[in-house]
Amino acid sequence: MKIGIDARMYGYAQTGIGNYIRHLLKSIFELDKENNFVVFLLSEEFDNFKIPNERIKKVKVSAKWYGWKEQFLFPIKLYQEKLDLMHFTHFNSPVLYFKKSIVTIHDVTPLHFPGHKMKSLIRRIGFKLVFFSSVKKASKIIAVSGNTKNDIVNYFKIKENKIKVIYEGVDEQFRAITLARVHFLDCKKNDLNKIKSYRLSRKLGTELQITKPFIFYTGVWRNHKNLVGLIKAFAILKNKYKLNYQLVLGGKEDPYYPEVRETWQKLGLEKDIIRTGFIDQECLPLFYNEAELFVIPSFYEGFGLIGLEAMACGIPVVSSNTTSLPEILGEAAIYFNPHNPEEMAEKMKLVLTDKKLYNRLRENGFRQIRKYSWERMGEETMRVYKKNIEY
Known about the structure:
Structural class: alpha/beta
Number of strands: 13
Strand order of the largest sheet: 3-2-1-4-5-6-7
CATH architecture of the largest domain: 3-Layer(aba) Sandwich
Low-confidence stretches: 180-191
Strand content: 15-25%
Number of domains: 2
Number of helices: 16
Distance between the termini: 13 Å
């Protein structure tokens, strides 16, 4: 059988979808010994993608996601390959492709939080049309969490038995690093904050003014991530509870959401809000390891992989109690209402000052991540392929 995989976001490690595609391809190519695969790639990654065996073909496409070429030129490439099954790894499948397909839905965030890109009426209509077409035409839908499955059922009136929940995994590089908190190099003995600043600055390639123990967040700076709430909670942690920490914000500052910067400026937190910019996959484990606490303040998450990454590195997690997060993080996190900065600050303070709780969350985190595996994700996805090819 001939199976196509939409890998146009392959190589875009700053997106969860890019990470998902990378692991999907690796897993199924290692597991499958009989089918033929066609991998559709953009020109930026076409030459870099190495074909592991003769049953795999790569096809270069010029149709980037969310544009008109995706809807009108991409389906021509798909039809030319005469596929038995096509796997769209994101909701954005071409409306004009009518052959058998499955689709992975990571979340329905734009339906809850449209963001600046969805201000245009035409874009909103186009988004809903493409999303609706993808889930209706697909012979099977893969959802990355039970919460995402419920959203698909509720928004698009899809039957539950059409949707298969397949969890994602955690990269092996995310692990506790024994030397992360130990003195080395040219720093003074026991000056852990200088060590952290030196190590992280050197790894990132940008000087960071980390002078205190820090709380960590990483991700995009969009409205559904609730960074304004996190900064307000951090101010309460410092002013009310008198805890002397810095807040390190990973991810690229987004000019479309100036309220994040305006909030820390208004609260006078410039010196204690450290902005790293985008952190690549190689650097990220070190940031997790050096942090004292990881916080997920989000209003909405389709899966919440960052929480599992932090747990794998041995860092306690304090999380929003919304959407998929309690489902994925289980008893390995302490939860708060993301609309209540006071409660967020209280839970952060609780974990930072209660050593027994801190250590219990660490141990629970190590147990929790065992539930998730990219290899298992690949195996379950292959079973979906097989059933839908035979159907």
